[in-house]
Structure formats: C-alpha cells, structure tokens
Write a structure and sequence with these properties.
Blueprint lengths: L3 E5 L4 H12 L4 E5 L5 H6 L2 H5 L2 E4 L5 H10 L2 E6 L5 H6 L1 H22 L4 E4 L16 H20 L3 E6 L1 E3 L10 H11 L3 E3 L4 E6 H11 L7 E6 L2 E4 H11 L5 E3 L13 H6 L8 H18 L13
Parallel strand pairs: 1-2, 1-4, 2-3, 4-5, 5-6, 6-10, 7-9, 8-12
Antiparallel strand pairs: 9-11
Helix pairs in contact: 1-9, 4-6, 6-7, 8-10, 8-12, 10-12
C-alpha cells in the first residue's frame, strides 16, 4: 500500500491502539477525530511515535471535511471507529443518529467517490440485541444495525466492499469510557491499591484492546469483496476471573463484583472473522490482564495515571 490508512474516532480506545500498531508497522497513518484530546494515544505511544501520526480534527458528520482529509493524504484504506456510545445516544438521539448513522454514510460515500476498497467499520455486540428475540434494545444498537444494513446496500448498489466487526467487552490501557470499561478500571484500582466494585457479574467475551485493533487492521490489509459482518468475542471469561488475576498480581487489592450478569452473549465465535481476513494474534485473558497490569504500573509510576483516572469517562 502506497497511500495512507485513515482511522476515524482515533481518540478512542481501539483507535489509539490501532494508531500505535500502524506506526509500529511503518504504515502511513492519518488520525481523524472531533476532539483534539490525544491523551489515550499518548498512554500507548512515545512522543516520537505520536509525531509520526498525521492528526486531523474534524466532524465525521461533515462529509466535506472527510473528503478533504482523504484527498489531502491519499487515503487508500479506512478503519471507521468514530461513534457515540450507548449513554450519549440515549441522552441525545438526534446527535447519536447524526454521528453513528450519517457519519457512517459519509464514510461509505467517500469510499465510493475515491474508489476505496479497503474499508472496515465498528459495529457492536449491541446489534445482536435488535433481533426478533432481543436481550437488550438501545438506540446505539439500532444505529449499529442500521450501519450494517447500509453496508449491504452500498455493496448491492455500488459494489463498495466492507467488513463490519462487532467487538464485545474491550479491555486494556486507554479503555476508560462506558459501563464495560469498569473491569479495566478495576485492574487500575488493583495497581493503585484502591478498592473497586464492578456492578455486574457473569461470563462475557473479553477482547484485549490490542487484539481488537489488530483485527481491524487485518481487515484492511487487502482489498475486499462484498459486505460482511463478523463477531469479535476474544476470550469468554467471568468478571471474577479478571479480578482474581488482578488480585494475584497486585497483593492486597480489594476488588469485587456484584449484581446481574451483562445481557451479552458470551460464546460468540471469532472463527468466521479469522477465516475472512489476514491472520492476527490472540490474547488469553491471563496474558491480556497481566500485560495491562504491567503497563498500568509503568504509567502510574510515571505520573501519567492516578486515582482520579478511576472515574469512568475521564479523558
């Protein structure tokens, strides 16, 4: 690939990990995000690595801004991660639709205009909740299901290929927003020696943030055909398992989980995705949690993270 890879929503968790991996792979990468806050990426990348990323601030719902960035940087592949999460969609449904649906239409329109055939976008496990026997209905899930349908139509009408990926519970450094960020915050609490309670229990698919990022990158590593959607479940594990590993590595940690299980399917298969795209590595829950602990210890020691970062949504 001679052109650039565009990462929308680059200021988020998976976006930050994707930037890091792309830089390490010596790819030309362009970050696109409404916010100028690059804090999450800075937790993962050196200053030199950060400087190698072309940062562009813009609104994903502004198609002209998106077109200008794609043209200016000769973008040949798009990893589309920009979205508003569940609580923000509920608080402002119109803006949720503007970002999560119109923003995705803009990405597909830009791909159509510039002939981009390497396109992947983040759907969500929440889309499973919109079926005939739903376990959870949300506007966020409805928007993501709409995005999947849009992708099918763009292939049907204009042969714009795409791969939609549905992550389950992402964990790791830089995961600090949304209810499912709480297991990651519990790991940070263990490193800090602070008590922490996760308000849900049960088994879910835990996907290490680096693995998730590498799956999205693998999805654009070669030209695609048709429009497909795949689950990204990682490793099924209980919340208690995550806390037990953390407590073992951080003696004296006071970590608990209570409440009902999350209404997420825990046994979805990653195999269809792995068969469809280039190979990418996987992390066991043991390896992922231990790596997260070690990185948190370094960040706490350097002063980059502190007790104030135990508040979900900070950053």
């Amino acid at each position: 690939m001679t052109g650039s890879i565009l990462v929308t929503g680059a200021g988020g968790c998976i976006g930050a990990w994707a930037l890091r991996q792309l830089v390490e792979d010596n790819q030309r990468v362009v970050a696109f995000d409404l916010s100028k806050n690059t804090r999450r990426a800075s937790l993962l990348m050196t200053e030199k690595q950060m400087q190698s990323v072309q940062w562009e601030n813009g609104d994903i719902a502004d198609v002209e801004a998106l077109r200008a960035v794609i043209k200016r940087h000769n973008v040949e592949a798009i990893i589309h991660l920009a979205a508003l999460q569940v609580p923000f969609c509920k608080a402002d449904p119109m803006n949720g639709a503007r970002v999560n649906v119109l923003g995705t239409v803009n990405v597909f329109e830009a791909a159509r205009e510039f002939g981009i055939n390497r396109l992947t976008y983040a759907s969500s496990v929440a889309a499973h909740g919109m079926g005939e026997t739903p376990w959870l209905k949300t506007l966020y899930g409805a928007y993501k299901m709409c995005d999947e349908n849009l992708a099918e139509v763009y292939w049907q009408d204009w042969q714009i290929p795409s791969i939609g990926i549905r992550p389950v519970v992402v964990y790791g450094v830089a995961r600090d927003q949304g209810m499912t960020s709480l297991p990651t915050l519990a790991i940070l609490a263990g490193v800090l020696g602070k008590p922490f309670e996760v308000p849900f229990t049960g088994t879910v698919g835990f996907i290490y943030a680096q693995e998730a990022a590498m799956a999205f990158i693998a999805a654009v590593s070669k030209p695609q055909q048709e429009a497909h959607v795949y689950d990204l479940n990682g490793t099924p594990a209980t919340v208690q398992q995550v806390l037990d590993i953390t407590s073992r590595e951080c003696p004296g940690a006071s970590l608990t989980c209570t409440g009902d299980p999350l209404p997420f399917p825990g046994e979805l298969s990653d195999e269809p995705l792995r068969q469809a795209i280039s190979p990418y590595p996987s992390w066991t829950i043991e390896r992922g949690v231990v790596e997260t602990i070690e990185r948190f210890k370094q960040l706490v020691a350097s002063g980059a993270l502190s007790e104030s970062d135990l508040i979900p949504g900070k950053g």
